[in-house]
Amino acid sequence: MTQTIEEDILFSEENGVGVVVLNRPRALNALTHHMIAALYERLLEWHDNEAIDVVLIKSSSERAFCAGGDVRAVWDDADRGEGLFRVEYRLNNFLAHFRKPYVSLLDGYVMGGGVGTSIYGSHRIVTERSVFAMPEIAIGLHPDVGGGYFLNQMPGRLGWFLGLTGYRCSYLEGLFCGFGTHLLDASDLKVFEERLVAASDKGFARVDSVLKSLARDCSAADTFLARNQKVLDQALDHKTLGEAVDELLKLQETVDGQDGEILGKALKAMGKGSKRSLLLTWENLRQSRGQAIGQVLERELRISTASVYTSDFKEGIRSVLVDKDGNPDWEDLDLHNPPSDFMDYYDNWTLKDGALLK
Ligand code: QUE
Predict the structure, then answer these.
(1) How confident is the model at residue 110 (pLDDT cuts 50, 70, 90)?
(2) Which of 60, 92, 217, 219 sits between 20 and 30 A of 83, alpha carbons compared?
């Protein structure tokens, strides 16, 4: 059965709640240009509509809230994805300044563009099925949609670890890192939505009062990221990517048991990632420190748009999403000794229609 694009994203309004349903389950809700544009237009309208008090965004599938942007479609776009990236980053920037409660139900996978579509909102509901990641090094891209901003806000250097390894955070780690704000049992999501729609309070109080009755207490203390934060911070607090990689590999020799296995798996993923992506991730995280979200998004739009024309992006899409052989043939770059003009390609990229916020 072919699905028309109009059904990929659904909108409804009920008693002051604007409801968005991501409805492209076979692609894990990977966001198409059309879905992002439709969401942005609707949010603009709801933002100025006094009858809308709260926005709720969720998925029609238990498997994923959203796996990212529809990067595979970039090849078919006349502009090689520039339009898709542009509407996506404009949406991210708008969400970062959205004044009404924006509640995301983050059940299942939340990766890349799925993070960008939720993390700037006021309430990010996690369930025991949530998995969070910024896995772009596997496709020759970099942790974008504001990764330079929100990864730098995570505890210590954990966000850098996530970006450099594509590490998949458990739901507790997702709360610890700030992907999520509240924990609900997946079986309570329906009743949460029903109570939110029925609630008589207004605005933020409306969401908070419903959450009070359903949110679960939890601690992330007994997770890999919390247990190892200090040593990961130390390993990553170095001047160059090459030095940090060496430190992480050394750390692997001292961490044993289950944590050693988890770390080994993360470092193996880093080793399998695009070296171009790793260098780009490092440099963008470095430049983003202390910058405002708009500044970060402006640079990332340029970087991502330029990245699409690299052989590593083509290889990443081929090996992960097309042939699915998991055997990418990356460009050979020395992480310890990158070309001095490495960033020039990105810094000199000119976007077709000028700046992001125009
Ligand atoms: C890294 C990524 C993405 C990915 C896999 C990675 C990503 C993304 C998708 C994806 C998944 C299913 C689809 C689709 C895209 O996979 O960003 O179109 O049907 O969107 O290892 O960054």
Answers:
(1) very high
(2) 60
> Cα–Cα distance between 337 and 247 in angstroms, integer?
16
Q: Is 99 exposed, middle or buried (0-12, 13-18, 19+ CB in 10 A)?
A: exposed
Residues 6+ apart with CB under 8 A from 200: 206
Backbone angles phi, psi at 251, to 5 degrees: -60, -35
Q: Which residues contact 251 (CB under 8 A, 6 or more apart)?
A: 231, 232, 235, 263
CB 124 within 8 A of CB 106: yes
> For residue 139, which atom of ligand 1 is closest to its CA?
1
Backbone angles phi, psi at 283, to 5 degrees: -65, -40
The pTM of the whole model exceeds 0.90: yes
pLDDT interval class at 353 (50, 70, 90)? confident
- Which of 63, 139, 319 is the pocket-test mutation for ligand 1 (most atoms within 8 Å of CB)? 139
Query: Distance from the CA of 314 to the center of ligand 1, in angstroms?
Result: 13
What is the C-alpha to C-alpha distance for residues 229 and 255, in angstroms, rounded to an integer?
A: 12
Q: Is 69 a catalytic residue?
A: yes
